[in-house]
Amino acid sequence: MKVGVKLTLYQLxxxxxxxxTGSFTKAGELLLxxxxxxxxxxxxxxxxxxxxxxxxxxxxxxxxxxxxQIVIHAREIVKQMxxxxxxxxxxxxxxxxxxxxxxxxxxxxxxxxxxxxxxRNRFPSVDLLLFDGSYTEIxxxxxxxxxxxxxxxxxxxxxxxxxxxxxxxVAVLPTNHPLAKQDVISIEQLEHxxxxxxxxxxxxxxxxxxxxKAISFNTQFEVADNATIISMVEAGIGVTIVPSLILPINxxxxxxxxxxxxxxxxxxxxxLSQQIVPPIIAAFIKETQSWLEExxx
Length: 297
Description:
Protein name: DNA-binding transcriptional LysR family regulator
Domain HTH lysR-type: 7-64
CATH architecture of the largest domain: 3-Layer(aba) Sandwich
Helix content: 40-55%
CATH superfamily of the largest domain: Periplasmic binding protein-like II
CATH topology of the largest domain: D-Maltodextrin-Binding Protein, domain 2
Number of strands: 12
Distance between the termini: 56 Å
GO molecular function, one term: DNA binding
Shape: rod-shaped
Keywords: DNA-binding, Transcription, Transcription regulation
Family: Belongs to the LysR transcriptional regulatory family.
Number of domains: 3
Radius of gyration: 32 Å
Strand content: 15-25%
Structural class: alpha/beta
Oligomer: single chain
Largest sheet: 10 strands, mixed
């Protein structure tokens, strides 16, 4: 074989078609080419390689020893090229597309900006649309197709959730509260405190934690807005237990305490059960996971 052989993918495809069909004519039919075109391509290929690939006789054609050796590699080259074409096709499907994402407020505020920036750095031509709502709204959006993917905590029928992060709940107290000097507190210590219940979807975790201890809590107010409940604690109206993600970066006039035993909110990406994930969504999920790992979540 000559040094610096220059082969084309089409030559290898024609070669494999002849091997598969055992005939130049049938190979031409398979490739929608003429018999003479196939013969000419094989002749060019043999000339480039510097050896015959087929033995011709009245009984037909068969591979030569050189042809037997080359066919193995030709199949692998064509196979790998098919994979490259699949990747290229997937990339084309990602470009100039739109992803609609459902998220709840604390995740939208503290996590989504980083994820979106990381994704847009790699796929600048993809539009990202954010739908911000409650858990119930996100579930409805996923089921109705309003969003392509959502971020959720609570499991629900018909939706598959894959965990991404663990968000511990914390107790938030006024700075002058008697428990403010403790590093860690238990929910038993909050049994008789004026309690502010955050009604944003994670309240079931709080209620269950109290029920497991067979204790009640003195609910003063039920609050739906994250910022409002922190402001009410600052004003000394009561105490609360909330996910860490809802806290401002530098909370003032409140103290934040870890709970023992811990209460954890698990947050994950969510799609319809049994849904086939399109390449564009798979790319978004991959970037989300990478960014969360780098950010230390």
